Design the sequence.
């Protein structure tokens, strides 16, 4: 059944739909091309034998006999050599070598050339499979990007609404403050949150702080509006685009404590706190493979890519999958990193916990501690990965604690979650930074030894505004 046609009022959305359809068609074409090869075809083996014949056997006086009336046994011998190479490598088993020496007067050269031709063909197959794998990775990226721009365009079109009375009221009110309004656009998001985009400038040579303008907009519009993240701070004589959105009901504060392997100052763990579109905030921990400077560069690169994609509006799971594909495509060796991400909705208090190979996360409420685990793989290992995610509702004064596996591994096997729960439940600290340092100090004192791996504790507290 064909997908139901969707009609759009905006020509821009129609054009974006065309772009998305073209990307999906290109992605589909890529995926339908040849698949990875796990074995050689009979034609490819035939070419290998022909090459050996031309470079070795044609110089032998028995060539006509071996490749003529005795060609069945010659082919059989060649197949036995290739089978033995697959099983034993270049060092063939004794029985295969004995058979070859009995049947071939140029056994050493025949064997050496056959192995060389086979290794070259095997290497070509590996490179072809890598190209096919990279092509599939590109196809997945294009398909994902097509879905994202299509969804974003539709949501944007659906969220715009006209409010002539309010537009006139805001324009008049701002004009009294010497602010000229070039355009006003009203949005109502799918979550029911208001947003206003305006292009404005000052009518004289004065300036106005954007936060002051937000107060005027709030009073006139009837909702508490705040400048969107990343806005300019001041409006002057030049036109500027400003976005005001409804103020959140919650705010967060965070604290971190970390130590490198062997008490080193350099840790392979990286962390980040990000302001995201739509009144969200994220906390991310990434543990690079190994420890030290190399692991630090790896985990920091992952966070830099993640920040870029999330701040551009990519959905978190889509961003992680795109980074994973990039890491797998771009390297011959495996270099994996974990991703432990918590995304806080500051309007509702909802927290989404997303994990790719990451350690446990703990939530401390007033009277209990909950721990959340994951069995997913890190990024950078497989082309397509399963990403674990779950949601929890947080309240005023709740804390979320994220740790890397170095913290868990420092505690007795099988008791890590229980011991950390006791440590978290046993402290009355309300400052995230103090709590993070307390937990790390408790783990280090429990073990009593220098850290065997990088250790990081990230604590985020959430409170009502």
Sequence:
């Amino acid at each position: 059944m064909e997908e139901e046609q969707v009609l759009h009022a905006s020509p821009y959305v129609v054009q974006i739909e065309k772009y998305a359809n073209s990307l999906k068609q290109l992605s589909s074409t890529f995926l339908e091309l040849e698949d990875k090869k796990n074995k050689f075809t009979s034609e490819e083996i035939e070419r290998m034998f022909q090459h050996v014949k031309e470079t070795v056997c044609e110089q032998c006086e028995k060539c006509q006999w071996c490749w003529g009336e005795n060609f069945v046994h010659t082919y059989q011998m060649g197949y036995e050599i290739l089978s033995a190479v697959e099983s034993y490598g270049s060092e063939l088993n004794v029985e295969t070598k004995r058979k070859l020496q009995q049947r071939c007067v140029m056994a050493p050269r025949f064997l050496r050339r056959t192995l060389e031709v086979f290794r070259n063909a095997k290497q070509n197959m590996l490179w072809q499979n890598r190209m096919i794998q990279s092509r599939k990775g590109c196809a997945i990226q294009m398909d994902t990007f097509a879905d994202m721009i299509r969804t974003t365009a539709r949501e944007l079109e659906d969220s715009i609404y006209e409010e002539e009375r309010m537009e006139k009221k805001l324009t008049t009110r701002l004009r009294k403050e010497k602010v000229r309004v070039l355009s006003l656009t009203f949005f109502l998001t799918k979550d029911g949150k208001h947003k206003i985009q305006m292009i404005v400038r000052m009518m004289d040579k004065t300036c106005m702080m954007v936060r002051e303008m937000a107060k005027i907009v709030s009073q006139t519009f009837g909702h508490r509006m705040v400048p969107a993240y990343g806005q300019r701070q001041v409006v002057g004589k030049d036109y500027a685009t400003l976005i005001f959105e409804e103020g959140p009901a919650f705010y967060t504060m965070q604290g971190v404590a970390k130590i490198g392997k062997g008490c080193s100052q350099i840790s392979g763990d990286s962390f980040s706190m990000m302001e995201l579109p739509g009144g969200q905030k994220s906390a991310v921990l990434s543990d690079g493979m190994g420890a030290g400077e190399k692991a630090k560069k790896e985990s920091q690169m992952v966070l830099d890519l993640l920040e870029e994609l999330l701040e551009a509006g990519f959905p978190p799971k889509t961003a992680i999958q795109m980074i994973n594909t990039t890491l797998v495509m771009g390297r011959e060796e495996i270099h994996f990193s974990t991703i432990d991400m918590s995304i806080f909705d500051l309007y509702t208090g909802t927290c989404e916990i997303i994990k790719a190979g990451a350690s446990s996360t703990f939530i401390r409420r007033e009277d209990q501690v909950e721990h959340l685990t994951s069995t997913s793989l890190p990024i950078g290992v497989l082309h397509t990965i399963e990403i674990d995610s779950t949601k929890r509702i947080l309240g005023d004064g709740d804390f979320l604690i994220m740790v890397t596996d170095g913290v868990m591994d420092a505690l007795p096997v099988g008791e890590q979650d229980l011991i950390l729960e006791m440590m978290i439940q046993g402290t009355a600290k309300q400052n995230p930074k103090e709590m993070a340092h307390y937990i790390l100090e408790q783990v280090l004192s429990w073990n009593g030894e220098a850290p065997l791996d990088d250790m990081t504790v990230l604590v985020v507290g959430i409170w009502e505004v």
